[in-house]
Please model this.
Amino acid sequence: MTDGRRNGRRATARDGILSGMDVTEDSDAARPRRLGAGARPRSLAVGAIASCALLWAAPDLAAAPRAGDAGDDARPAERAAAAEITVLRAEDGRPLAGARITDAAGTRVGSTDAEGRCALPPPAAGARYLVAAPGRVPVAVDAARYAALTGGAGAALALEKAADLEVVIYDARGGVLPDAEVVLRGEDDGALLFGAEEEEWSARTDARGRARFSQLPASSAWRARVRHDGRLLREIERTLRFEDERVARVGWIVDPGRDRTGRALDESGDPVVGARLWVVENDDDPFARRDARWIVEGAGPPVRVVETDERGRFTLSDLPHGWYRVGPAPGEGFVALGAPLEHDLRDEPRAVRLRLDAGAPLDGTVEASDGSPLAGALVRVRVAGTGGVAAVRADDRGRFRLRVPAGRPLRLEAVDERFGLTSRLAHVAAGTTRVALRFE
Model:
């Protein structure tokens, strides 16, 4: 199981402190040491110190010779004046003793006393301090934040609880998904050290589908992406709430999808070449999802758009698990009825056999109660034995045309949307080629 770590191109405070250094303190003389790439960081272990020990030296003094050296006279006579900051526990506002403050090089500058206080000089231009404590998310303090904390307005620095997150990735068939990349992103500028204002942590699932992230804020909003074989499988937005748990465990189901092949034939059984097909979502209830329905333009984007080859074949690539309808795209010269398609990844997929119906044109007119043509009326058509409604709008002379299945009875009505009026429902026998709808 791999630990969550930063992508190499986005170095931040957590990269340096949480996943790039061993900051376990075995004695006062201990110093951080680098770990190998991808190594898991050990937790911070800093004992509570009764009073603040100021160990800071300005950057221009760090390289100055020690007392007694030839360059001793070059040491500046004064240091920047120190000011007191207060560090609290985020969950209850109580003082946090023993919080450790380090500079950008990882050198300890000081630590908070029993009241959560520590006197610090201002950070050098462009530099930041890092305030960290065991079981807490480190917080960076730059010059602006330092000024806010020491400005006398009672401001304090709150360190949030940290926890680990274990994610298990399952596929749509209930099995675990190894070697998937899980990426977490969130905005938390208080935990950043250098530059970037957006965090990105990544980990790969092991053979048991698990990926682990360390030292996350105990309550924070995150966006998650799950990728496998270079394909995005799922995006998740959620707030992680760990409460009193040190390790939170969640399971996410993703759908790698699967190809589905098929063939489109006409009424005579011959392949239809170059037909443009739409695949649309089928979110009907279980009693209606097996019915054919009209594929209507403007009702939502299709899930897939494909075209048949010279043998009438088509492939629906990486189609996720679920229910769909597939049929001719509107305006393609066929009746735009979508056949139900169940795509169950738990079963071996069967080839789709699609019958395209050229149908027959139905011409009609819409008339007002006095017999005059009614421009712009909406005509709705239902085909017996199918669900859904096809709709077409009458032109400025009240005329309309649409393609309907041959040999099937129809029901038509017109709607005058200006006044909310509906014509009488017209029952049209199979084979009818012309109809008139009148408002009364």
Residues 43-60+81-160 form a domain with the Immunoglobulin-like fold (CATH 2.60.40.1120). The mean pLDDT is 75. DSSP finds three helices and 33 strands in the chain.
